[in-house]
Amino acid sequence: xxxxxxxHIMSLVVAGTMLLLTACDSxxxxxxxxxIKTEEVLVDEGNLQLVLISAYTGLKGTFxxxxxxxLYGGDFNFFSELLASTGEVTWVGSxxxxxxxxxxxxxxxxxxxxxxxxxxxxxxxSLNIVLKYLDLAKSPESKASLEGQALALRGLIYxxxxxxxxxxxxxxxxxxGVPLVLTPTEKVEDIEFVPRNTxxxxxxxxxxxxxxxxxxxxxxDKNDVFISSYAVSAILSRVYLQQGEFQKAAEEANRVIGFNxxxxxxxxxxxxxxxxxxxxxxxxxxxxxxxxxxxSTSGENNAGLTTHYxxxxxxxxxxxxxxxxxxxxxxxxxxxxxxxxNLADEAVIANVDQMFYIGVGGQNDGGIQTSKxxxxxxxxxxxxxxxxxxTRAEANFEAxxxxxxxxxxxxxxxxxRAGLDPLAGPLTREMIHKERHLELAWEGFxxxxxxxxxENIGSLAYDAPELILPIPEREIEANENLKQLPxxxx
Length: 490
Hints:
The protein is mainly alpha-helical. Among the domains are: about 240 residues, Serine Threonine Protein Phosphatase 5, Tetratricopeptide repeat (Alpha Horseshoe); about 70 residues, no CATH class. It is about 40% helix and about 5% strand. Helix 7 packs antiparallel against helix 8. This is RagB/SusD family nutrient uptake outer membrane protein. It is found in: Cell outer membrane.
């Protein structure tokens, strides 16, 4: 397995070098690799920064090239929403890989699963190279920044890998986590055939990386491009929520919500839900977003969020179609549930003034589409402030605490932004779950939330093996130390 995905690292090192040489071109034109050695590339801090930049690029991923695999630019969203779907979203596209997901019958040779697995370990190998060569940093400050960012991104990716490919986190440990690879492979001799770590071991490493990153990045404050200490707290709040560490989740979310400079909050909800999406630069609501006009590959591609969620003139295929059953969940007047049904065929996202619309402009038009992904060249929001309010509300409710605010107050912040009357109480667990589902719909949360709430997905139990991705067949064949989930055979 490691032979397959770890030797890809030279692509990222070369990509970073090529970015330096072609700074005016936002596309990373990856050429054949293995032509130069890492020690010949990494000669100063500037080169190390470029390797880190290549990792940010890899967080999105690309499709249709030799470096396939979408992470936060598509597949991590689709894996969650399609596996968790019980009818609120349907797949009307022609690709069999996504059909396997929504049918809960993923094959071990599913190319989307394979490519995202490889991409994730490629990116983490790049991060491991940054961590190995920190002595190239010119100052203690730049060293702390490089180390903190690399640890933060590694923690984020491992967290999502274990949520998709591992069994759900529970008090009793499971051997079916994912392999932890914490040192880089720079040459063939470095290849190791590692087994899966347990779920608890992976979560332990994730928390360790994130806590250290949070400390290292403190003082760098908010950054519109790279990850910050407060974004790390937001990721930690996700991890703790998934583990059922509710007080810790509330504390980390509260740190993000309360971040202020000179008495002014840095992160603020946008005036309306629609304004939180399709932005060319970070909005005040973005805690962490992939910059498609900066460090990431700009433009739409055949695997991205816009391609499958949108159906507008020149944007999207309309493959991910929202059902009326989802729209019916919203209260009258909820700004998150409005549907535009009279767009012209030439309409683009700028012409859409509601959170949903009836698709126009060609293939698969006529269905309900979400407005969250309407232009493939806009930033991809990874963490929004709205999530932090919802996390703090749920975590405080479950812990019986009022860290920062009461659960009712936080839920009402989200409802009032959506144009709804505040709730008077009493607040119930079901009400909190519903607000989270509606606010974060189609952002890749559904599967993970249902697993930690221990809710059935159709006829499947929350921990059913059909809801856990298989390790790609080629990885199992290459590494005899890897154990496949019994459901998928060996």
